[in-house]
From TrEMBL:
Residue stretches spanning the membrane: 26-45, 57-81, 93-114, 126-146, 158-177, 211-229, 241-263, 275-300, 312-330, 337-353
Organism: Ideonella paludis
Cited PANTHER family: SODIUM-POTASSIUM/PROTON ANTIPORTER CHAA, SODIUM-POTASSIUM_PROTON ANTIPORTER CHAA
Keywords: Membrane, Transmembrane, Transmembrane helix
Membrane topology qualifier: Multi-pass membrane protein
Localisation per UniProt entry: Membrane
Residue ranges occupied by any Sodium/calcium exchanger membrane region domain in the UniProt entry: 27-179, 210-352
Taxonomic classification: Bacteria, Pseudomonadati, Pseudomonadota, Betaproteobacteria, Burkholderiales
InterPro entries linked to this entry: Alkaline_pH_Ca-Antiporter (IPR052946), NaCa_Exmemb (IPR004837)
Protein name: Ionic transporter y4hA
Length: 354
């Protein structure tokens, strides 16, 4: 327990030193293990909070924490990059949706299927979340390439405001359904395989302390990822890979805490918790990011390109078709996990080899 108090502080200290002495090569080597410790710590403290407040509030805390920090990172990149960062929000959201819907879901289904053969989850909650995600993704990432009011893959200011409002409303309604009106749709069907569920809940003081350390750990994850991004960019140039590779790698790092928490839940036969994390994170990634990015774009007159190229549109459509089939019955096995992982592998490969 004391180690999980020290880990976030050590990671924050490493990040601070890296910001003060960015050219010191030894700090780059320390940033990698610090990043791993930050991910481990964030998952631990998120689970402490989840044990205190119960589901689905626990998964919502982790999803919101990661998304808020991700939004801050996207906005900082837009402000620093200007016209060169017009596609950063699009690339970040697209990568997040593909990583979550194929990578995270695929690993969870495969890991859970290998250990428990078949698993169940409530289709009432996950299905409504997936439907909202399809609508939000289509409005944000696909329609800009098909509309004619603005040149290129862009929206006009009024179209941006409409899409931002629609995304935020859908996310708020989903959170209301998840936490108030139909909370039972998002509760794990069985907890017998997870010993932590039956342990004594932490005190309010411990939960507050874990929340503070969770924020420190998540800030460290994003900060260390950004600290390592120049090295990643140099490697990308050396490999002559597309620039979108950097955004994908950073998205994988930022989503690592949620991924690990989701896999742990699937192995403990709590696939519902995994689905809550995955779908909730994808919805928050759009529902929170787009309104703030749109407001910043209009207010500060920043260029914003949201429309995907045809290759990425096809993969996004494939992702939702596969998800509707594999998650449509509420029962899963390892074959479905393998299918999602093949789509995820295609996304990664075509990012490197467009």
């Amino acid at each position: 327990m004391h180690a999980f108090i020290a880990y976030p502080l050590l990671c924050a200290a490493t990040l601070t030193a890296g910001l003060i002495w960015p050219t010191l090569s030894v700090l780059l080597w320390l940033a990698v293990p610090a990043l791993v410790l930050a991910v481990i710590s964030s998952v631990h403290h998120a689970e402490v909070i989840a044990h205190r407040v119960g589901e689905p509030y626990g998964t919502l805390v982790l999803a919101l924490s990661v998304t808020v920090i991700e939004v801050a990172l996207v906005l900082s990149m837009m402000l620093a990059g200007g016209a060169n960062a017009a596609t950063v929000p699009r690339d970040t959201i697209y990568a997040a949706v593909m990583i979550i819907c194929n990578g995270v879901v695929g690993v969870c289904l495969l890991a859970g299927g290998l250990r428990h053969k078949e698993q169940n989850f409530r289709i009432e909650g996950t299905g409504s979340g997936m439907a909202a995600l399809v609508v939000m993704s289509t409005l944000v990432l696909v329609m800009p390439s098909l509309t004619t009011s603005a040149p290129g893959a862009n929206y006009t200011a009024s179209q941006l405001l409409f899409v931002a409002a629609g995304s935020l409303i859908l996310w708020l309604v989903f959170v209301f359904i998840q936490t108030v009106r139909h909370r039972d749709y998002f509760l794990p069907a069985q907890d017998a395989a997870d010993e932590d569920v039956h342990a004594t809940p932490p005190t309010a003081h411990q939960a507050v302390g874990s929340f503070a350390l969770l924020i420190v750990a998540l800030v460290s994850v994003v900060g260390l990822a950004k600290l390592l991004s120049p090295t990643l960019e140099a490697l990308v140039r050396q490999w002559q890979a597309p620039t979108a590779v950097v955004g994908t790698l950073i998205a994988i790092i930022v989503l690592a805490p949620e991924t690990w928490a989701a896999i742990r839940a699937a192995r403990a036969n709590r696939l519902q918790t995994s689905m809550n994390l995955a779908i909730g994170s994808a919805l928050a990634s759009i529902g929170l990011t787009i309104p703030l990015v749109v407001l910043a774009s209009i207010w500060l007159d920043l260029p914003l390109t949201l429309g995907l190229v045809p290759k990425d549109m096809a993969l996004l459509v494939l992702t939702f078709i596969v998800g509707a089939i594999t998650l449509g019955s509420g029962r899963t096995n390892l074959m479905q996990g393998a299918i999602h992982l093949v789509v995820f592998a295609a996304f990664l490969f075509l990012t490197f080899v467009p």
